[in-house]
Write a structure and sequence with these properties.
By secondary structure, the chain is α+β, with helices and mostly antiparallel strands. It has helices at about 20-50, 125-130, 135-160, 195-205, 220-230, 230-235, 235-245, 275; strands at about 70, 75-85, 105-110, 115-120, 165, 170-175, 180, 215-220, 245-250, 250-255, 260, 285-290, 295-310, 315-330, 335-340. About 30% of the residues lie in helices and about 25% in strands. β10 and β11 form a beta hairpin.
């Protein structure tokens, strides 16, 4: 008589190699269960690895270290610069003559407080139960990318937008048309980015008496980078030595005194920057500036909230926000280059 089957344990071994039917059924059950468990584990692991990766997008704040950053929440409109006019020397050209007095001109640069840019999401309990990753953790990570893009957006809006000046911050100054370099610079017709335009931008700053020691920055898109790499001087060893070319992973990082920030200005997740960085003829406007020429002010660097919401059946919610704005300071410290896109 065969022994009764014991689930999960097979101890009977026949010389003829046959397994008793009850044990055979039990054995199949155990292996089927084991195979199913292994399949689920592999699926869960695969989901975990794949779902935790963020969708391709700008996740950092590449421009923050290229501008002057302040933290002032004392008012809804912050005066970030006092601009003092320059005087001229008076010549003592007469005996016992009167003193020739001068009046110094003063101006101010202001930044009005904008609306907060934020990210908020409720973690639906049903969704959490259907996935194998921590949705709350992934939402926090998503929020970090949103905040970094928000700061990039505000900086670019400040470079291209109106500059507020005057004693009381009531004078509105649009981006000066004279600060935009022609699209045909260094070419016989409208052209993409080239080294002649980089030289022209340097000349623009020098003509406006910008100090040589001020750090100089410029934004390049992938197309602009490719256009510069396509020039023979940009890749020659002589050029690297004479023009200070520095490269990393196929990107030009420095050249002719410029530090390049690689940002896609047509990024739809940067709000209205795409429109600001494109002129009426559909030419790209690549901004350039020196570090003192753009100021980013924070009213609140980061507002973060993570907690359960009673009104939403105690499901967890995540919120991250920032309140900041930027502006040009003196107009001679920044400009833009017109380029053919593509």
């Amino acid at each position: 008589m065969d022994a009764p089957p014991i689930r999960g344990v097979v101890t009977v071994e026949r010389p003829d190699g046959n397994v008793p039917k009850p044990f055979a059924a039990t054995l199949r059950f155990c292996y089927e269960q084991r195979a199913t468990a292994m399949s689920v584990e592999n699926t869960q692991q695969l989901k975990y690895k794949n779902n935790l990766e963020m969708e391709l997008q700008l996740q950092t704040s590449p421009l923050e270290d290229a501008v002057t950053v302040t933290d002032d929440a004392s008012s809804s409109k912050i005066k970030i610069k006092d601009i003092v006019g320059n005087g001229d020397p008076q010549e003592d050209d007469e005996r016992e003559g009167d003193t020739k007095w001068q009046r110094t001109a003063f101006d101010g640069v202001w930044i009005p407080k904008p609306n907060e840019l934020y990210y908020a999401e409720i973690i639906e309990n049903h969704d959490q139960l259907q996935t194998v990753i921590d949705l709350q953790g992934s939402a926090v990570k998503n929020g970090a990318g949103v905040i970094n893009r928000a700061k990039t957006r505000r900086i670019l809006q400040g470079i291209f937008g109106n500059r507020i000046s005057g004693k009381d911050g009531t004078v509105v100054n649009a981006f000066p048309a004279g600060n935009i370099l022609p699209v045909d610079t260094g070419a016989a017709a409208a052209a993409r980015m080239n080294t002649a335009k980089l030289i022209a931008a340097n000349s623009f700053l020098t003509r406006n008496y910008v100090p040589d020691e001020a750090e100089r920055f410029m934004i390049l898109t992938a197309d602009d980078n490719a256009a510069l790499l396509g020039e023979i001087p940009a890749t020659s060893s002589d050029f690297k030595g004479a023009f200070g070319g520095e490269f990393m992973n196929g990107k030009i990082m420095r050249m002719l005194g410029w530090t390049f920030k690689h940002v896609e200005l047509d990024n739809p997740r940067l709000g209205n920057v795409t429109n600001l960085a494109t002129d009426g003829s559909n030419y790209r406007l690549n901004p350039f500036w020196v570090k003192p020429g753009v100021v980013l002010n924070f009213w609140q660097r980061l507002r973060s909230e993570v907690g359960k919401i009673p009104e939403k059946r105690f499901m967890p919610g995540v919120l991250a926000g920032t309140t900041c704005a930027a502006t040009r300071t003196q107009e001679g410290m920044s400009g833009a280059i017109r380029n053919v896109k593509g």
